[in-house]
């Protein structure tokens, strides 16, 4: 009995120790399995990546991170967490990865914004932003040590805010979009050890290698075209222990973003190995990129070749004779500092083709700054409006172009998108998105053929208010529009009001003659203190917005020279008489909502006060219009007539005699300055 018991105990103990051993083996097996993660994807067909944003798998197995949508992020992550650190002493393991990518920009030299291989604590980096943040960070967490994000970025736009080197660089990012190591894209060829440049947005597939040595605590990054072996010398090398930056369990994948312009960013294949060297990708097995441009058939060779030979001779002859003329015709001014703005810079030749040689047929209109032409970009077929602004002085142009480029990043549904610019001698060309329904003033003044009904007008008003609010308060910097008025509000295909021309007045503020204070804006929209001091502020914009409100509601111009009537005075008089609704546009008939009309007119008066402090902010204006706060109380409003009468403009105009000869209506001071200067 006793013996048996002992025997039974021994048996149990043996069993138990076996189980413990088994459990231990299993757990160490599990650890080993997760530690030594090793995969190779030659194309991503039937893989289980976790995708978000614009990322998708195409039918032939390409991973397409971004599509043709602006300001998008796309993420693709390996679905399971990966153990990056030794659980005993917390040091980061050796790992290695390699992938093949391609970036095809929408225009040959214009693409946005880039992509990155990323190691992150979460799958999909929720809360991250597109554009310059590459879908990795946002304005709040960028640079924060609690991010635990390590990435290799392939950045194709130069972001001044983040001290980017250029618009074609590779960088190692640790917790911040400002890279700790970066270099222009290129590789050291194995034979000569010479650095050869690469263009990330060439549309050609390229391969990236990222290798971390956990013992040496060194991270190397290389890049090369796919027909070139891994460079013997890395492009970037960082000696740093990654242990403090990595959590034990991390996710690995890709992040990508577009901005004002887009590119399609693809990953063709990806290999990863923990504790070892990632398996080499077999380039021949990777999926094919979509073809660019039209297909060439073999027929082309048989018929095309002789034709080609003939045309070659023709081209050779004609190029000699036309060469000189052409160069002159398409001459541009391109200075070194502009190279930074590569993506936003258009070729004059392309714009010339797009607008059919700036023909009269394509002329959309002319304003104070110059003529505006309609065009269609070759290849992408995007409709554009090109504004030709003459600019004699070279002074300030650099700041202005920098500003244009930064403004080009602004995106809001109530702003006219600015695609970029081109510069010639004495001339600047600005390229905007084409607005099919033209400018708002055409629907308001001078017995228009088509007018807008009240609900359309009210929607335009709310839209423009939110666009201006965005410029003033919602963007990274305060942007002052300086020229808010009905003719600068354009209507898109859905009759949304969109503010155009922003920042343009600035060009003249940078000015020709530093002796005089330049006031740029349009009479009737110009706040008194702006006329006096020459300084534009957000409240001078609000003043102009007030004039705009009154215009849209009344269908009258802010100054009617024939009648010597100033619109604000006129509406104010109606209000004093207790009949503010009398100021409405007679063209509306009975189609209007009395409460909204009254709100718009009252708000117009409130914004038109001579005292800047009395005017509301654009935030308040939006709240009034949306009915979020009760309608403004304007019973105490003071609008001293003397302050708004012609005398103010007389004084002002005295210093610019050339403007006196012209009609006040719709005359921008900038124009008079310009014509005076020539
Ligand atoms: N993006 C655009 N899409 C379509 N039409 C446009 C576009 N930009 C301008 N236009 C047309 O060109 C005309 C001239 O525009 P522009 O902005 O130069 O003049 P303005 O606003 O009347 O005057 P100012 O230059 O003093 O602001 C506009 O009235 C509009 O019809
Ligand atoms: C791009 O991706 C976004 C997000 O998934 C989607 O809403 C949009 O329709 C896509 N656009 C195109 C042109 O495929
Ligand atoms: C794909 O990954 C997700 C997330 O880990 C998982 O829930 C799902 O079961 C996986 N599907 C397949 C087919 O592996
Ligand atoms: C952590 O442990 C591993 C093996 O267990 C060892 O190779 C490595 O050197 C250790 N790291 C540190 C910082 O002690
Ligand atoms: C920024 O990203 C972090 C981390 O993903 C997120 O928690 C935070 O809400 C984001 N902030 C903003 C302002 O979106
Ligand atoms: C970093 O992020 C953490 C957590 O989100 C936050 O508490 C901390 O204030 C941030 N630090 C800085 C410097 O922004
Ligand atoms: C390569 O690129 C760098 C940085 O843009 C530039 O300075 C250099 O001149 C380029 N070299 C060649 C051979 O194009
Ligand atoms: C990084 O590159 C250097 C220089 O070529 C090399 O000595 C080192 O072994 C490399 N380290 C890794 C982790 O590949």
From TrEMBL:
InterPro entries listed in its UniProt record: ConA-like_dom_sf, Kinase-like_dom_sf, L-type_Lectin-RKs, Lectin_legB_Mn/Ca_BS, Legume_lectin_dom, Prot_kinase_dom, Protein_kinase_ATP_BS, Ser-Thr/Tyr_kinase_cat_dom
Transmembrane regions listed in the UniProt entry: 300-324
UniProt-listed PROSITE patterns: LECTIN_LEGUME_BETA, PROTEIN_KINASE_ATP, PROTEIN_KINASE_DOM, PROTEIN_KINASE_ST
Annotated ATP binding sites: 387
Keyword Nucleotide-binding: yes
Gene3D superfamilies recorded: 2.60.120.200, Phosphorylase Kinase, domain 1 (3.30.200.20), Transferase(Phosphotransferase) domain 1 (1.10.510.10)
Gene Ontology MF terms: ATP binding; carbohydrate binding; protein serine/threonine kinase activity
Enzyme class: transferase
EC number per UniProt: 2.7.11.1
Substrates-to-products reaction catalysed: L-seryl-[protein] + ATP = O-phospho-L-seryl-[protein] + ADP + H(+); L-threonyl-[protein] + ATP = O-phospho-L-threonyl-[protein] + ADP + H(+)
UniProt record similarity statement: Belongs to the leguminous lectin family.
Designated name of the protein: non-specific serine/threonine protein kinase
Species per Swiss-Prot/TrEMBL record: Salix dunnii
């Amino acid at each position: 009995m006793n013996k048996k018991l002992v025997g039974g105990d021994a048996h149990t103990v043996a069993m138990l120790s076996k189980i413990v051993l088994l459990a231990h083996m299993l757990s160490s097996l599990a650890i080993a399995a997760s530690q030594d993660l090793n995969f190779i994807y030659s194309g991503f067909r039937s893989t289980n990546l976790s995708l978000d944003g614009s990322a998708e798998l195409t039918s032939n197995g390409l991973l397409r991170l971004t599509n043709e949508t602006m300001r998008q992020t796309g993420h693709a992550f390996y679905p399971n967490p990966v153990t990056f650190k030794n659980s005993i002493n917390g040091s980061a393991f050796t790992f290695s990865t390699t992938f093949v990518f391609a970036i095809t920009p929408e225009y040959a030299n214009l693409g946005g914004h880039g992509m990155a291989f990323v190691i992150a604590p979460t799958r999909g980096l929720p809360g991250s932003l597109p554009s310059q943040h590459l879908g990795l960070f946002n304005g709040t967490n960028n640079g924060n040590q609690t991010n635990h994000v390590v990435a290799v970025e392939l950045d194709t736009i130069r972001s001044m805010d983040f001290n980017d080197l250029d618009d074609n660089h590779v960088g190692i990012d640790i917790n911040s979009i400002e890279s700790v190591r970066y270099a222009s894209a290129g590789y050291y060829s194995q034979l000569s050890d010479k650095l050869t440049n690469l263009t990330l947005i060439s549309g050609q597939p390229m391969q990236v290698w990222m290798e971390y040595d956990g013992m040496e605590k060194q991270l190397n990054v290389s890049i090369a075209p796919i027909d070139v072996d891994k460079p013997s010398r890395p492009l970037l090398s960082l000696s740093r222990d990654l242990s403090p930056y990595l959590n034990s369990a991390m996710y690995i994948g890709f992040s990508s973003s577009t901005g004002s312009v887009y590119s399609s960013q693809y990953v063709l294949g990806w290999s990863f190995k923990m504790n070892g060297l990632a398996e080499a990708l077999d380039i021949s097995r990777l999926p094919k990129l979509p073809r660019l441009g039209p297909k060439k058939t073999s027929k082309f060779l048989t018929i095309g070749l002789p034709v080609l030979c003939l045309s070659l001779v023709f081209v050779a002859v004609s190029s000699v004779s036309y060469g000189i003329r052409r160069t002159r015709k398409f001459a541009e001014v391109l200075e070194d500092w502009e190279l930074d703005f590569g993506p936003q810079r258009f070729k004059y030749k392309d714009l010339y083709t797009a607008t059919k040689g700036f023909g009269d047929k394509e002329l959309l209109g002319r304003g104070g700054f110059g003529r505006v032409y309609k065009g269609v970009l070759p290849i992408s077929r995007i409709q554009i409006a090109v504004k030709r602004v003459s600019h004699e002085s070279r002074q300030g142009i650099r700041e202005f172009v920098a500003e244009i480029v930064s403004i080009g990043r602004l995106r809001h549904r109530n702003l006219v998108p600015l695609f970029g610019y081109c510069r010639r001698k004495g001339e600047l060309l600005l390229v905007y998105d084409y607005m099919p329904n033209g400018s708002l003033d055409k629907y308001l003044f001078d017995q228009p053929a088509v007018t807008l009904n009240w609900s359309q007008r009210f929607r335009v008003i709310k839209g423009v208010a939110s666009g201006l609010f965005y410029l003033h308060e919602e963007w990274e910097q305060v942007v002052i529009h300086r020229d808010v008025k009905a003719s600068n509000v354009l209507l898109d295909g859905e009759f949304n009001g969109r503010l155009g021309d922003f920042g343009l007045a600035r060009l003249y503020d940078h000015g020709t003659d530093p002796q005089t204070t330049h006031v740029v804006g349009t009479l009737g929209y110009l706040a008194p203190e702006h006329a006096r001091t020459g300084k534009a502020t957000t409240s001078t914009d609000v003043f102009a917005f007030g004039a705009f409100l009154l215009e849209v509601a009344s269908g009258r111009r802010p100054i009617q020279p024939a009648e010597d009537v100033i619109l604000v005075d006129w509406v104010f008089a109606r209000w004093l008489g207790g009949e503010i609704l009398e100021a409405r546009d007679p063209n509306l008939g009975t189609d209007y909502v009395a409460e909204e009309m009254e709100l718009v007119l009252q708000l117009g008066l409130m914004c038109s006060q001579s005292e800047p402090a009395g005017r509301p902010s654009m935030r308040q204006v939006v709240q009034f219009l949306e009915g979020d706060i009760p309608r403004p109380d304007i019973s105490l409003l003071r609008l001293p007539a003397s302050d708004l009468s012609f005398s103010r403009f007389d004084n002002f105009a005295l210093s610019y005699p050339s403007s006196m000869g012209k009609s006040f209506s719709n005359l921008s001071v900038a124009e008079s300055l310009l014509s005076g200067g020539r």
